[in-house]
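Note to self: the last two entries modelled the partners one at a time, which told us nothing about the interface. This time every component goes in together.
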Amino acid sequence: MKRTGGYFSQIALAMAGRRSPWGGSSGGGDNGGNGGDGPPEDSGSGGSGDSPPPRGPRNPWLPGGGESGGDAGPDRDGPRRTGNIEDLFRKRGPEGPRRTPGGPGGPNIRLPERPGGGSWFPLVLGAVVVVGLGISMVHQVGPKEQGIVTTVGKYSRTLQPGLNFTLPWPIQQVSVEPVSTIRSFRIPAGGQEKLILTGDQNLVDLTYLIRWNIKDLKQFRFQLAQPEETINEVAEAAMRASVAERTLDETFSGAGRAEIEQRVRDRMQAVLDAYRSGIAVQGVEIGKTDPPERVVEAFKDVSAAQQDADADINRARAWAQQVLAQAEGEAAAFDKVYAEYKLAPDVTRQRMYYETMERVLGKTNKTIVEAPGVTPYLPLPEIKQRATKKPEGQ
Amino acid sequence: MERIWENHKLALIALAVVLAVLMSAVVIVPETQQAVVVRTGEPVRVINRFRPNTPYGQTGAGMVLRIPILESVQRVDKRVIALDMERQQVLSADQQRLQVDAYARFRIIDPVLMVETAGTEEQVVAQLQPILTSVLRQELGRRSFTSLLTAERGTAMTNIRNKLDRQAREYGAQIIDVRIKRTDLPDGTPLEAAYTRMQTDREREAATIRAQGRKDAQIIRAEAEATAAKTYALSFGKDPRFYDFYRAMQSYVTTFETGEGDSSIILSPDNEYLRQFRGTR
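The predicted structure of the combined assembly is written out below.
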């Protein structure tokens, strides 16, 4: 019930320019309020408002009634009487006076006098109160949010998504928090090196991401003094404990990392549940696992060594292939010739011998020493260059 | 207005006083706090005391009344409070140094005792911090360096928690958890030594891998040679004499013809090749 009142007043305020509901009795069709589209007669009334002093008591809250007259007056009496465009605008609508330089502090909104001559003050005050109540009573909770209602400090209920109504402000307070939104933070927050000791007393530079959300808003609100800091520390402790169970090589391997992630998550959840923190750890992702910067060269050299070893083996394989192929080729060639030879051994043998000799002797310088005791002249410099070889006799 | 003031001056003042007294009689205790009502220096009751398993809304939080002036209210946090320890260097049983970061989490379960002994939560933290440090040193100093790193830490932590809890109870606090956030090697020599060890370890690994590669390559080569020899033997072994001839022919061609080719040969007339040349027979 009260809520609708609040709503109406909000709507009413928005429309107050034209037709103020509380001024309805005054039949105010002609209030030159803040509606920018005031009909021309408005400006007329504004103009006419200058010359006769305002009837009834002035509105102390909206200086427009009295002051705009004093404002527009000098302008009109001034020497500049030509149809200046500013003048035109000034004359046109309620916006005009507002632009007047050196005008009074506030906007020159003028409300017409109430018929009874009463002050607007109680009405405005009432409206403010009603709007205030409305705002503190109506709460819109978004789809991922929940709200906690406390009645003078005491927990009353949890608001679910949608439009919710509570008692007004001093009595009930509402704090709305995104609940199912998954939040995350990275450790370390900056890009600096974070060294963690592994089980085999090596150091690993490790970054990770914790994703979490609130699973029980009231626990989250009321149980921990520093929830975010707690998550951070719990994560840190869990990660270090989990890495300390593994060797360095395991932290580098994919399977080891997945196991560490799972362990950290379980550990964190157990601890946070023990704190009754109302926090659900959604996941732990290890970003990078690197050796410390100081020794990273040595680590790179290990993979380089692997490459070197592979290269060695590859070269050996290539050579082996060549050797094998050659052996097979030669053996096959011999087998073919031998098959022929078996058919006619002596003839083949002789033929091969002469053929080879032809080919060999045809290309070489030949010296035949005829008689025994005759020493042929050998051109020694040439001998030096050329290898002499005597074909072996049979 | 003025007339009202003139006519009812006393009544208005009385009204204001009553209002002020009423206001000061109302105390609002939120869910996150407990409140100790102290009457003339003596704690008389506790509002919203921590009790496990009491659902929120039924813990006694909210608006309560007190006797103004006579009773004062001291608020005590009801939530889990952090107790952080400064980084400490701990000496393990095997004389290794280790930098330890630990934290504890506690909660005030007896606010009256807390107010009487410590006064505020900050005081409790200040009192417990050195205790945590010394308990930690004692407990970790009994263990070897490696067991500090690994999961065996679990029992150490339970011991530390129990010891600290015993002390904390005197302040009306309950230790929920003690955890080592991080254990690090201290900067300087120990860290350098660790780096050196890691580095040499990797160097050894690299050397091993390279040697292994060379070994494998050698084996591959030897195997190929053996297989080739076997292939040759199988083929040529069928007729060694013919192979000798066949291979010699091949060798002559390689040496004299396809070799650089500038060879000179001195032939004796007795040469087998020139047998027919002499026209004998």
